[in-house]
Amino acid sequence: MNDDLSLVAAVRGNERGAFERLVRAHQGLVWHVVYRLVQHPEDARELSQETFLRVHQRLAQYRGDSPLAGWIARIAYHIAVRHLQRKRIPLESDIDDGGEEGAFARIADEADIEGEHAGRQAMDLLARGLERLPPMQRMLLTLYHLDELGIAEISAITGQPEGTIKNSLFRARHRLRGMLETKLETA
């Protein structure tokens, strides 16, 4: 937390290279939040830039009572959500893709899936499945499993209650599992 406060002080004091350090430290997280919601590389680049512009403009509002990464991710989240709202793209979907345990669960239980090639194919299948999820579910899975943020941190970023985050993660995993089972059974 002290590192966050010293970096913020350096940026606010116009210390040479301080804002660039801030961007480098948090650009991966901002990209994950924005891209997983909008899923369009050019829009994600523009919205990421807009996020850092907003961060720079509002840095005086950062109080240091939470990690800087969460504060920045919250800004990125709100910018991406507003972008989706302007384009009338729903964050969630009420469609339930069904399916309980099955091929996906069996794969998770088996230690070897015909080597690295099968592993790469499974990762490609997983990536394609993630892309088909609604923006909010895609982002939540990414933040929780890839960025390894906790439920409380995700709740702070999105402003949603922790129970809602847990429920959305459950539904996202369920939907993704159903999509993967369908793909694996037709393969």
What does this structure look like?
- By secondary structure, the protein is mainly alpha-helical.
- It folds into 2 domains: 2-86, Rna Polymerase Sigma Factor, Chain: A (Orthogonal Bundle), CATH 1.10.1740.10; 103-186, Arc Repressor Mutant, subunit A (Orthogonal Bundle).
- It has helices at 2-12, 18-38, 41-58, 68-86, 103-109, 115-132, 135-146, 151-158, 162-186.
- Helix 2 crosses helix 7 (135-146) and helix 7 packs across helix 9.
- The radius of gyration is 19 Å and the shape is elongated.
Global geometry: elongated
- The CATH architecture of the largest domain would be Orthogonal Bundle
Give the tally of structural domains. 2
Rg from Cα:
19 Å
How far is the first residue's CA from the last residue's CA? Answer: 49 Å
According to DSSP, the number of beta strands is 0
Largest sheet: none
Oligomer: single chain
The assigned structural class equals mainly alpha
Mean pLDDT: 81
Helix count, DSSP H or I runs of 4 or more residues: 9
| Name of the CATH superfamily of the largest domain | RNA polymerase sigma factor, region 2, helix turn helix motif
Q: Which regions are unreliable across 5 or more consecutive residues at pLDDT < 50?
A: 94-118
